[in-house]
Amino acid sequence: MTNLNSIVGRVTDRIIERSRSTRSRYLDLIRNQKEQGINRPRLACGNLAHGFAGAGEDQGAIRAMAGPNIGIVTAYNDMLSAHAPYYRYPEQMKIFAREVGATAQVASGVPAMCDGVTQGLPGMDLSLFSRDTIAMSTAVALSHGMFDAVALLGICDKIVPGLLIGTLRFGHLPTLLIPGGPMTSGLPNKEKVRVRQLYAEGKVGKAELLEAEAKSYHGQGTCTFYGTANSNQMMMELMGLHVPNAAFVNPGTPLRQALTRAAVHRLAELGRDKARPLGEVVDEKGIVNALVGLLATGGSTNHAIHLPAIARAAGIIIDWQDFDELSAAVPLIARVYPNGAKDVNDFHHAGGMAFVTSALAAEGLIHVDTLTAGADELEAWKSTPTYEGDQLTWRPVPESLDPDMLRPVSDPFLPDGGMRLVQGNLGRATFKTSAVDQERWTIEAPVRCFSDQQEVLDAFKAGELDRDVIVVMRFQGPRANGMPELHKLTPALGVLQDRGHKVALVTDGRMSGASGKVPAAIHCSPEALPDGPLARLQDGDVVRLSAHSGELNVLNVDLATRQPAQRPAPPLGTGRELFALMRNFADDAERGASAMLAQMDAEI
């Protein structure tokens, strides 16, 4: 067996040691839940009768404890393309469960919002905290004690982390996530970007832009670019929380249905044996595998927030130094849009997660001795599923079928994983280098400070940014307005860069996996509110941002001598005032930007 890479081993050991007390308390909790917590055999007759009253033909089996009962937590809605395929899943899953002497019930639904719909709009201020809302909703769903295993139906940005965080509080139960798959490929990505930039310059109108967008996002399934949703799917594969390599099979295909059936059968097996509980599968090694996969594939920077939060829910503590050190050891072996020209369907057809898992395992960059739920060993994830003659089988993927998409570790696209920690007198931030040309990894320029995205776009249209400039977008952190993504800025900043200017973005907001080609220091911590360093910057200050040296500094300025800029008024409307409690108590992005987890830690 290949020896584990020394840096991967060192970081893992450090995480284990750092997490020793919190992980021990977590494991004690789930052991106690397994032995003494609420479950079906312990329910009083009235409680149990309420639990199976709506179960139709499964009433008798649930009442008689005839087999394991699978709780389905679903994020279905038909406004969100990625979750629309889940409409018929519960009906199908109940049939699949009966095939193996089990039952299934929909425990509850959880909210699932689409950042693509809310980009640049007030609703985006609810986006990050929807993760905590989903986690709490999941806990409510599972609180009835009716279930022996859990099936999580969710794919997108905050939905998978929220489902997982909530279910980890019921970590004594075996759990699988069941994906729906990506939509088929639409308008080529380069063409989509070209039209967006033409619109930003006023060279095409809204009708042309809408036509391009509609051809890109055209049907059911996950968006095909490699943003947070598809990064979620990759991480769940490497944590062993899917049936092997189920992530990137298109909706509505026989293979997709066969994989769902296999997942239900697997959950029935695990529920019957009370085997491989979620809290033991999500351990320090599994978290490191997810992080390594994120770096190797150029995944979403949103997971610099979500992965610490997921880990924290399991008593595991990781930080951005772990990301940075692993990034230096893990090469970039995938080029998926926006880090390349082709999308996740091309990625899957080129070998996908089977190739990635094989390549990383062969070089000792992931732990292969992890406990997995979707199969008995991580070895199973080195093969890709096929469905022929009514038979679901897996075949090995020994090599990449497209070297422009996937390469071996020995011949990577870049020697490191492209998620750097930058820090200095402006705090700590994440810089995703994998989509940025290396000559732009260091930018030194005067700043222009903003606290509203529209202000940036107005300045761009007025020609005020047509120069070397670092745009500082502040008061966008979790405590200020919920830490929205700032993709609305990407086309304008891309135009400035294409004109030959040195351009960068520094923000305490988010940019996710679609951040693209413009250098950006994101998730700045501490955030500007109430008086973080970003709040003390002034127009014209010269900032140096460098992924080469890990630097984020304002030059020749003593920030301590300045008063912080006045914060904008708290956000109101579109339900944002309902989330004031979450904003007021949220902790730093590096810890997961969560009020819920901060208060949970205080109680336990």
TrEMBL record:
Pfam families with a match to the protein in the record: ILV_EDD_C, ILVD_EDD_N
InterPro entries the record matches: 6-phosphgluc_deHydtase (IPR004786), Dihydro-acid_dehy_C (IPR042096), DiOHA_6PGluconate_deHydtase_CS (IPR020558), ILV_EDD_C (IPR056740), ILV_EDD_N (IPR000581), IlvD/EDD_N (IPR037237)
Start and end residues of each Dihydroxy-acid/6-phosphogluconate dehydratase N-terminal domain: 68-378
Cofactor binding remark: Binds 1 [4Fe-4S] cluster.
Chemical reaction(s) catalysed: 6-phospho-D-gluconate = 2-dehydro-3-deoxy-6-phospho-D-gluconate + H2O
Database matches in PROSITE patterns: ILVD_EDD_1, ILVD_EDD_2
Pathway recorded for this protein: Carbohydrate metabolism; Entner-Doudoroff pathway
Sorted UniProt keywords: 4Fe-4S, Carbohydrate metabolism, Gluconate utilization, Iron, Iron-sulfur, Lyase, Metal-binding
Coiled-coil residue windows: none
Cofactor: [4Fe-4S] cluster
Recorded superkingdom: Bacteria
EC number(s) from the headed UniProt entry: 4.2.1.12
Example GO BP: Entner-Doudoroff pathway through 6-phosphogluconate
Ligand binding ([4Fe-4S] cluster): C156, C223
Annotated Gene Ontology cellular component terms: cytosol
UniProt GO MF annotations: 4 iron, 4 sulfur cluster binding; metal ion binding; phosphogluconate dehydratase activity
Positions of the Dihydroxy-acid/6-phosphogluconate dehydratase C-terminal domain: 405-593
Family according to the record: Belongs to the IlvD/Edd family.
Listed HAMAP family: Edd (MF_02094)
Function according to Swiss-Prot or TrEMBL: Catalyzes the dehydration of 6-phospho-D-gluconate to 2-dehydro-3-deoxy-6-phospho-D-gluconate.
Listed name of the protein: Phosphogluconate dehydratase
